[in-house]
Write a structure and sequence with these properties.
Layout (H helix, E strand, L loop, with lengths): L1 E7 L2 E7 L7 H16 L4 E6 L8 H16 L3 E3 L5 H12 L14 H34 L7 H11 L4 H23 L8 H39 L2 H7 L4 H39 L4 H11 L2 H27 L5 H32 L3
Parallel strand pairs: 2-3, 3-4
Antiparallel strand pairs: 1-2
């Protein structure tokens, strides 16, 4: 593709030849210099034309003219497309209308106090939406236990299975390793005082009171809470939730309550499993590194187990189950309509659940301390 500059009747014409050659920078520079000199003499408009009108449908010649149009504009001159074939004119006019530079971010021109008010109102709407969601869920639970809710047994069993035995593998592995790590860290300190036997008591109390519940909560938030959000978010994108509302089915009865009850019912049993495996993991450290007999380790571990600590851990797990279920369902039901919203809802469910789990742990710890438990 070559370009030829012609001076016709005091007009500058750029003629594009559709041959096999390709213009490089050395060919372009003299033409740019000539155009710049003509501009300095008062020239304003350059006419574009092609030497072979029968080949104007080819992409290379259109791209070549488009590039020269940009160059002419950058030199402060204008160009005229009237000598080009009509089809090529229409193509170039459409291409030149498109802005290729990324849009600039619009600065917020609102006053500072107005921005604070808008942000506060947005937070208020989110809090109001969450409170209404919790209120509707409470009413749905009441309808569920009185036999008035509309739900499917097969869906309930599917969710129940996902919250129960399907989560046993990952919880068993993590709980065993946490108990092992907890015992190993404690053994490093207790061994210096000749009190290595008490690592069994430390692991038993730590796992049953809080560690097992926290680890199960974290795993279930990343596994089950995200699953709730992804499932409901996908239903939102596919307009399945709108279809259920059109049929007069309450979303809280059909989608939320079965998931909430399934997780709250199963998470205490998973926590007790985590207690046992955490204590067993601590036994590996006690027997292998502290030269404690297995009988002595489990004797001290059983003596340290109290119903009070076990119930405290189970209470934490139930609270975590409620938080994970509510966060997962809320984020899923409030997801947007595009594909990206499902990912955002899943991430939001996990992050929100973890944050509220930490907040709940702090509140429960203070309350239990005040009660002397």
């Amino acid at each position: 593709m070559t370009v030829e500059l012609k001076h016709i009747n005091q007009e500058f014409h750029l003629t594009f030849n559709s041959d096999t050659n390709t213009a490089d920078e050395d060919d372009i520079t003299p033409i740019i210099d000539d155009i710049t000199a003509w501009k300095n003499q008062g020239g304003k408009i350059i006419f574009f034309e092609v030497s072979d009108a029968s080949n104007t449908y080819s992409s290379p010649i259109a791209a070549q003219i488009f590039g020269w149009a940009k160059r002419i504009k950058s030199l402060g001159l204008d160009f005229n497309l009237s000598l080009l074939p009509k089809n090529l004119q229409e193509m170039l006019v459409l291409a030149l209308k498109v802005e290729n530079t990324p849009p600039k971010e619009k600065k917020n021109a609102m006053p500072y106090l107005e921005r604070i008010g808008a942000k506060s109102f947005e937070v208020f709407k989110k809090v109001k939406s969450a409170c209404l969601f919790i209120h509707e869920t409470n009413l749905s639970l009441l309808r569920f236990f009185t036999g008035q809710a509309i739900w499917r047994k097969n869906d309930f069993l599917f969710v129940f299975a996902d919250c129960s035995y399907k989560a046993v593998g990952i919880i068993s592995l993590v709980s065993f390793l946490v108990g092992l790590i907890l015992a190993f860290v404690g053994a490093l300190q207790l061994r210096t005082f000749g009190a290595g036997i008490y690592v069994a008591s430390m692991v038993s109390i730590g796992m049953t009171r809080i560690m097992a519940a926290i680890m199960v909560g974290i795993i279930m938030a990343g596994r089950t809470g995200s699953s709730y959000a992804a499932t409901l978010g996908t239903m939102q994108v596919n307009e399945e939730i709108d279809a259920l509302k059109t049929l007069g089915i309450k979303i809280s009865d059909y989608l939320i309550t079965p998931r909430l009850i399934s997780l709250v019912f199963t998470i205490p049993f998973l926590t007790m499993l985590a207690d046992a495996l955490g204590i067993f993991g601590g036994a590996i450290v006690g027997v292998a590194f502290l030269d404690i007999s297995s009988s002595s380790y489990f004797d001290f571990a059983i003596k340290a187990l109290t119903l009070e600590n076990i119930l405290v851990g189970l209470m934490h797990s139930i609270v975590y189950g409620i938080i994970i279920s509510l966060c997962g369902c809320y984020e899923g039901l409030n997801a947007g309509r595009d594909a990206d919203s499902v990912g955002k809802a899943t991430t939001g469910a996990v992050v929100t659940a973890l944050v509220w789990m930490i907040v709940a742990t702090g509140i429960l710890t203070v309350l239990l301390e005040m009660a002397g438990i």
